[in-house]
Write a structure and sequence with these properties.
This protein is an alpha+beta fold. It is built from six helices and seven strands, in the order βααααβββαβαββ. Residues 1-151 form the N-acetyltransferase domain.
């Protein structure tokens, strides 16, 4: 398994990973066109987990947007190819990217908005911010007291 930044030719495979979750009401063609046109998707950096030379999980990382403070990162759109779900690939990718981001000397925290059961993220060390679905992971801040970033 390898975690790395995604290449542009992998974007279609990345977008298809989330079609069943985020493509409701859209044809496959419309969904793919919307993903490619998304300013939000273009403003982040995609990462993939590669297994047998194929991307099986993906996520996007944001910085300096959505009210993220200095040294903070936002992680979103975590998805795994439907046939590969339930095998820990999404958790492996999230753990690896979170660790890589927080290894930077100026890093403070990573954030995500939990669209699924919070327990999945809590198992990986993320903590809930009271009053919403935003969660964070930090070695430097045991408690988060600021306003959480907006949804990304």
């Amino acid at each position: 398994m390898q975690t790395r930044k995604a290449s542009p030719d992998e974007l279609n495979a990345i977008f298809w990973m989330g079609f069943d979750a985020w493509g409701e009401g859209l044809s496959p063609t419309e969904y793919l066109a919307n993903c490619h046109a998304s300013q939000k998707y273009r403003s982040g950096v995609w990462y993939v987990l590669i297994v047998d030379n194929q991307p099986v999980s993906s996520l996007i990382v944001y910085r300096d947007r959505f009210g993220l403070g200095q040294g903070c990162f936002g992680i979103g759109s975590l998805a795994t190819t439907p046939a590969m779900r339930g095998q820990g690939f999404g958790a492996h990718l999230l753990r690896g990217v979170t660790g890589m981001l927080l290894d930077s000397p100026d890093a403070v925290a990573t954030f995500l908005h939990a669209d699924i059961d919070h327990h999945f993220y809590e198992r990986l060390g993320y903590r809930r911010i009271p009053g919403g679905d935003c969660m964070y992971f930090s070695h430097r801040r045991p408690r988060y007291v600021d306003e959480p970033p907006t949804y990304f």
